[in-house]
Design brief:
The radius of gyration is 17 Å and the shape is globular. It is an alpha/beta fold and about 220 residues long. A hairpin with a 5-residue loop joins strand 10 (about 175-180) and strand 11. It folds into 2 domains: about 5-20 and about 65-215, Rossmann fold (3-Layer(aba) Sandwich), CATH 3.40.50; about 20-55. It has 8 helices and 11 strands. It binds magnesium ion. Magnesium ion binds near residues 8, 10, 11 and 154.
C-alpha cells in the first residue's frame, strides 16, 4: 500500500507568531491575525507581506507544538512502509536558515530527514496558495505509483485543491483531514460528496475552480 502522506506545518503541527501583513499603496503596513488573513481580500494597490514566514529563527523561537498532531505524524512515519513517503508541504518559501528550521522538527522527535519539506512559497507562478500546494502534490502523484494520498491541513481551501486532483489520478485514493489547533482531525469531504455524489462524479470534465482562494 504505497501511500503519500502530505502534512502542512503552520497551524497543523506548530503555532507560531509569524503573521501576514498587508502593505497598502502608501507603504503603510497592517498585521493580520490568521483569522483575518483567511478572509482578507486585497484592495487596490495592496499586497501581502509574508516575510515572517521566511524567518527560521522566529519559527524556532515562537513555535508551540500541537502535540497530538505531532504524535500522529511520528506514528505515521514510524510505521511507514518502504514505498510510502512523507512530505511536509508548507506555503512558506525557502527559509533564511534551513538548519534552524529543520532542528525544530528534530527537537520534537519528528524524523524530518526521512521525508522532505516542500515549500510552495517558492513557486513563482501567479497562483493562489492552495493551487501552489496542488502543483507540488500533483508532481508527486505523477512520479510514483501510489495507492493512497493522505493530506492533513488546517485550511479547507488546501484540502479542496488536493481533492480536485483526484480525477487526474483515478487509481489513487485521496483522503483529506482537516487539522484543528487542538490536534483533533476530522475527515474532510467536499460539499458535493456530502450531498451523496462522489467528488469525482460531481466534477465532470475540466473540474471546478475554487473562487477567492488564497490558502496558506
Ligand atoms: Mg496551515
Amino acid at each position: 500500500m504505497p501511500t503519500l502522506y502530505i502534512i502542512d506545518i503552520d497551524e497543523t503541527l506548530f503555532i507560531t507568531d509569524a503573521r501576514v501583513r498587508v502593505i497598502d499603496s502608501k507603504g503603510e503596513t497592517r498585521v493580520l491575525s490568521p483569522e483575518e488573513y483567511r478572509k482578507y481580500q486585497l484592495g487596490a494597490g495592496e499586497k501581502f507581506d509574508f516575510s515572517d514566514f521566511e524567518d527560521a529563527e522566529m519559527f524556532a523561537r515562537t513555535s508551540r507544538p500541537i502535540e497530538r498532531m505531532i504524535d500522529r505524524v511520528k506514528t505515521i512515519m514510524g510505521g511507514i512502509e518502504d514505498e510510502s513517503y512523507t512530505i511536509f508541504l508548507t506555503a512558506r518559501p525557502d527559509q533564511n536558515d534551513r538548519d534552524v528550521f529543520l532542528e525544530v522538527f528534530r527537537k520534537h522527535g519528528i524524523d524530518i530527514d526521512s521525508g522532505h519539506v516542500e515549500r510552495a512559497g517558492n513557486i513563482r507562478l501567479d497562483l493562489f496558495g492552495s493551487r501552489k500546494k496542488a502543483v507540488i502534490i500533483d508532481k508527486y502523484l505523477r512520479r510514483g505509483t501510489w495507492d493512497e494520498a493522505v493530506m492533513f491541513d488546517d485550511d479547507e481551501r488546501n484540502l479542496l485543491s488536493f481533492l480536485e486532483l483526484g480525477p487526474a489520478h483515478p487509481s489513487v485514493r485521496m483522503t483529506a483531514y482537516l487539522a484543528g489547533l487542538d490536534g483533533e482531525i476530522t475527515h474532510f469531504e467536499s460539499r458535493e460528496r456530502k450531498h451523496g455524489k462522489t467528488f469525482r462524479e460531481s466534477q465532470g470534465r475540466g473540474g471546478r475552480r475554487v473562487a477567492h482562494d488564497r490558502g496558506r
